């Protein structure tokens, strides 16, 4: 049986390598919407970009509740689930900065600026979710 991660442990876990997150938002009819995202932690927030007209962008503009699941699908399996409320910004300078930081986690360093510029344009959103609740467990199958 696994064990609950400490704050330092889950932060290290979700920030390791190129793990993507699975973001859940609330549709207008109350049903869940799930989408994979690139993200980074910034203090007590997780940060990502999305289009304003995507399902997740529209959901977050209407109802800011969001939950991010990050997991390790290899034995002995671990996960962290981060929940909170989103704050949306259309500030292109801040968006470019964070889009570049996020891209640097997932693509070769020389491509990060290109991705940052591509993802910081009108119609895109910078999303910061203030983490209010964490459920995490390490080594679930041990």
Walk me through what this model shows.
The chain has helices spanning 7-15, 55-62, 92-106, 109-118, and strands spanning 3-4, 21-26, 32-37, 40-42, 45-51, 65-72, 78-89, 124-138. Helix 3 (92-106) runs antiparallel to helix 4. Strands 1, 2, 3, 4, 5, 6, 7 and 8 form an eight-stranded antiparallel beta sheet that branches. It is built from four helices and eight strands; from the N terminus they run βαββββαββααβ. The protein has one domain: Pnp Oxidase, Chain A. The longest helix has 15 residues, at 92-106. It starts with a strand and ends with a strand. By secondary structure, it is an alpha+beta fold. 30% of the residues lie in helices and 42% in strands.
Topology:
Layout: E1 3-4, H1 7-15, E2 21-26, E3 32-37, E4 40-42, E5 45-51, H2 55-62, E6 65-72, E7 78-89, H3 92-106, H4 109-118, E8 124-138
Antiparallel strand pairs: 1-8, 2-3, 2-6, 4-5, 5-8, 6-7, 7-8
Radius of gyration: 15 Å
**Percentage of helical residues?**
25-40%
Count of individual domains: 1
Q: What is the C-level CATH assignment?
A: Mainly Beta
User: Which structural category fits the helices and strands?
Assistant: alpha+beta
Q: Give the helix tally.
A: 4
Strand content of the residues, in percent? 35-45%
Give the tally of β-strands.
8
CATH architecture: Roll
CATH topology: Pnp Oxidase, Chain A
């Amino acid at each position: 049986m696994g064990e609950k991660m400490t704050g330092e442990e889950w932060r290290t876990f979700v920030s390791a390598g190129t793990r993507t997150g699975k973001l859940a938002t609330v549709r207008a009819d109350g049903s869940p919407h799930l989408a994979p995202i690139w993200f980074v932690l910034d203090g007590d927030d997780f940060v990502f970009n999305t289009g304003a007209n995507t399902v997740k962008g529209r959901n977050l503009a209407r109802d800011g509740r969001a939950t991010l699941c990050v997991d390790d699908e290899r034995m002995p399996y671990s996960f962290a689930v981060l929940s909170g409320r989103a704050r949306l910004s259309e500030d292109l300078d801040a968006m470019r900065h964070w889009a570049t930081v996020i891209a640097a986690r997932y693509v070769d360093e020389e491509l990060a600026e290109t991705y940052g510029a591509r993802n910081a344009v009108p119609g895109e959103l910078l999303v910061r979710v203030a983490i209010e609740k964490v459920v995490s467990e390490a080594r679930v199958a041990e």
